[in-house]
Amino acid sequence: MCGIAGLAGPDAHLSADAVAAMGAAQHHRGPDGTDQITAADGRAVLSMNILKIVNPRAVSGPYTDPDTGVALALNGEIYNYTELARRWRIPLAADETDAHLLLRAWIRFGPRVLGEVDGMFAVAVYDPRAARLVLARDRLGEKPVYWRLDGGLLVFASEVTSLTGYGEAPPVLRPEMVALETPTGIDTPHQGIQVLAPGSWLEFDAATGSLRQRRWWDLCAIPPVETTYRDSVRLVADTLASRIPQRAPRGDFALLLSGGLDSSLLAYLLRPPVCVTVRYPGQDRLDESAVAARVAADIGAELVTVEPTIDDFQTHLPRIVQALDYPVGNASTFSEYMAYRAVAQLGVRVAVGGLGPDEFLMGYVRHALALFGAEAVLTAGLDAYRPLAAKLTTAADSPLSPAEAVTRLVTRGPDPQHRVRALVERCLMAAGGSTERALTLVELETAWRPLVATSDKLASAFAVERRSPYLARELVETFFQLPGSHKIAHPARGKRVLRDAARQFGVPERVWASTDKVGFASPVPAWLAGPLAGWARESITRAAATAPAALRPLLHAGLKPSGPFDRTRMQALVAAHWITPSHAAPAAA
After folding, report:
1. CA 277 – CA 259 distance, rounded (Å)
2. Listing from the earlier edge strand, what are the strands of the sheet with 146-150?
3. Structural domain boundaries of the chain?
4. Could you tell me the fold of the domain covering 3-217?
5. pTM of this prediction?
């Protein structure tokens, strides 16, 4: 986990101080060193913060090839870099890492090298021979890179805050922020700032100012396969056994263990020395700590249990908002933040978590509702999801189209411009008739973006690297191509093939047979509707009084009555602290 920043364009060298400021603003991402270089032609300046995970003896970046002058800054990890170094016969010295492999491979192969690497990364490469800067991002967007154009310069950084520090970028309310709690596509809630799309690269001509973007990885290009269920289980089990360990750190690391299927399976595959779980005393519905304790005991790991309080939430919210860059309504961010804080207090630098299977193997109840309908899901024993199922009812009691049903299930607010509906329709078309594949595409275009963004940003706030082993390329592509019935065949049993594979690795039946999904859920929405209602209202009202007119609808939505599962107030509260951070007390370390 590192940070990158820089700019390119005519006379870029004159802005070296601005790049230094951006690098300093991201120092927490790579506290082992921050450095920068100016390209030989003066048309690019690159900065890099380094957190030494791959090689403790690594020299700080950015890195320059002495023969060509090509320079590279890398954020993230290339997990198969030693394998690629052997295949391509690229020598690496004792103080060199995956970044050096990528630099030398890029000089030889250009952007084609991206198709061979398996990792999480955002990379900047500048070639003075052609005066071209390339920014590229990993397949699923685990590592971010934001960019903007300013007076003939292309400016980029790992965090929006670094770019807003470079120059004015007024906050704006994207329509999807009301419907989905997050912008979609390449938009951010900052005027003029975009995020590079996952699986794509951007090329900028520093001499002419021309710019082009291309996708280098397309999930839809992976065709479905016809296979027996037994073969699917065998394939998934074999791929898990071969690919999950590749993303394990060589030294100490902590597993974020919720007690659910995904993190528990990682525990048996990786055997971490320590597991961190989160529980809220008195919140039995959210408490999976007993399962986490059983799993940790089985694998001989130390279990650290974090018990956040209402006071913790009020104390740490300002720093959470600061780390997130812009508003996110998911109350699980509080649990995740407190988990990373505990990891950092242990002196551990890498945290491993279970993102991925829910999106690719139909693990959310909304998937079951879209595939089987409300009655089948409720009859299967998932009565707690009745409010979500109610979204599928119509006044005329007529069946909804697939696009309308999915749109209703993924939106949390109004979609007046039908932008989310149009997105869902595009995903259904791209999936070629497979509703299961379409649901995965919808997830990646909506809820996925804040999930990976918060994992990166909250971990980075503590100089902790977050790894997600299920996002290994071969696993993701294997999951996506499986028949839909192998992913889910019963309304209450998503991730079917993963459940049966988990049995082979010793995961307890209590885990793989469970039909409930909790994860690192938090009681924050209930707090904001109960004991913290007055504090939340006061914070939101104060922010609304001075907020730009365009952002007031986001805040006013949080002033309406809300229930214990409504995230609207959480999003409004986060937005209030984002818009007027000065009214919040600084969080304790």
Report:
1. 8
2. 34-38, 44-49, 3-8, 153-157, 146-150, 194-195
3. 3-217, 221-306+329-359+449-509, 366-445, 524-583
4. Glutamine Phosphoribosylpyrophosphate, subunit 1, domain 1 (3.60.20)
5. 0.94
Instruction: Return the DSSP state at 588.
Output: P
Q: Looking at this protein, which amino acid is placed at residue 36?
A: Q
8-state DSSP, 247:
G
CA distance 462 to 143: 16
Tokens of 276: 């961190």
Torsion sign (Cα): 92, 349, 181, 427: positive
- Segment-wise mean pLDDT, segments of 10 residues, the chain, 589 residues: 92 96 95 95 97 84 96 96 96 93 96 96 98 98 96 95 89 85 88 96 97 96 96 98 90 93 96 96 82 95 96 95 86 92 96 96 96 94 90 79 94 88 96 94 94 94 96 97 96 95 95 80 90 95 90 88 78 90 43
Pick the CATH number of 221-306+329-359+449-509 from 3.40.50.620, 3.40.1440.10, 3.50.50.60, 2.60.120.810: 3.40.50.620
- Structural tokens at position 16: 């070296």
State whether residue 267 is helix, strand or coil. helix
> By the 8 A CB rule, do 72 and 99 touch?
yes
Distance CA 81, CA 87 (A): 10
Query: What is the Cα–Cα distance from 405 to 402, expressed in whole angstroms?
Result: 5
